[in-house]
Amino acid sequence: MRATEILMNEHRLIEKVLSVVDRMADLALQRGTLDPQKAAQAIDFIRTFADKCHHAKEEDVLFVRMEAVGFPHDNGPIAVMLHDHDSGRAFVRTMASVVEDAARGDGDALRTFADNAHRYTEMLREHIQKEDKILYPMADQSFDKNDQAELLAAFERADNQAGAGIHEKYVDLASTLSSQYGVSEAPRPR
Fold first, then answer.
1. How is the chain split into domains, by residue range?
2. What are phi and psi of 41, to 5 degrees?
3. How many CB atoms lie within 10 A of CB 50?
4. pTM surpassing 0.90?
5. CB-neighbour burial class of residue 150 (10 A; exposed 0-12, middle 13-18, buried 19+)
């Protein structure tokens, strides 16, 4: 298995939660309230699994290795991916900042939550497609067998540093949220 395959498998789980976030935002607008516990769980998934686990493997391992084989950091595909990660974090910060007010039925907070949720999910879906279809194949073509082995070992270390059972916890959370919001599966890459 290549390291990029691990990342693509994680993308499928993230896409499932993106569908949950879209549904959550739509229901919040329809019902005039947001379930704060479920919103907090979705935000926790995004911040912990998508960002601290998945994006960290990209930023701290994959992109560093890509730079080592000649990809520039400050422009080109790595710079675009880093910009997307930062944009996503801003959307999620805004979502998190209005959860309590949205739960109380504040219309402005509900619209802010939903707007940022939809902007986040749209941006991240496009981001995932760029990685799956463009960035990862470019990386794989640039890496030799030693690079691939070192990436896999570094990914394993990163997962271990995240904590025992963390991956399983977020797989379970994604499954629970998906069931609660009627999301059967993630959209498949185009």
1. 3-180
2. -65, -45
3. 22
4. yes
5. middle
